[in-house]
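Show me any protein, keeping tokens residue-aligned.
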Amino acid sequence: MQQKTYAITGVASGIGAELVTLLKRDGHRVIGYDINNANSDVDRFIALDLNSETAIDDAVSQTDEALHGLCNNAGLPPREGLEQQLLQVNFLGQRRFTKGMLSLLAENASIVNMASKAGHGWRDNLEQVKRLALVSSRSQLPAFIEAEAINPTRCYNLSKEAMLLWTAAESELMVAKQCRINSISPAAISTNILDDFRRAFGDKVDQNTSRTGRPGLPREVAAVARFLLSAESHWIKGTDIPVDGGMGAFMMSDALDLHDMQMLTR
């Protein structure tokens, strides 16, 4: 397999760290970005604070290699007091970082955005997502949050809705650049921030994981990201792939009352 170079954000732990391990096992070169200490497996570490526009631009300026793929994996969970950071890190910062890296993408490069099942409510919030997309700098976020009257949990969901729709919006332009972009929507993944989601979403988290049997594992999400970064997925473009253990299907079956269609109950 030809060695390729991938840029991965959020490599210090969780899904990002697992993705680094998988890519390195395949013989690829990985440039890792994070605000925390470097993952020891990366070939090169560049500090990245997505909450700072200056730090984002500095990280981009330090990157001087052709890239075969970029995974925007870094992000914050819903926590009290982090309204601005959630919107900046989870969406605006990712968008700015990606725009800065576009000139480094090689032909047929793949971008993978880490969204969330929490972003799948975008249809009910489309106009708000579009308003967020018009925010051009972090300095505008306090006024946006006040005008929208949104709490940390809504900020988290909104940031992930924006990641999903931004991915779709960029798809045709990426194809024209001979690149592609897709997103992944994990749900209830067993990382050190799972308790943050329990606090934010209450019993719903445990109810959903009881139906799937367990939370997902970071490596299970990383394996999907690895596939989307690879040439094997070259015809997948502008798509969101849920990695949720079946939660989405269960909820759709409930909502549409599909139980009479179940062959195992007939």
Remarks:
- The domain at 5-256 is CATH 3.40.50.720 (Rossmann fold).
- The chain has one domain: 5-256.
- Strands lie at 5-9, 29-34, 44-47, 67-72, 105-114, 180-186, 240-243.
- The first helix runs from residue 14 to 25.
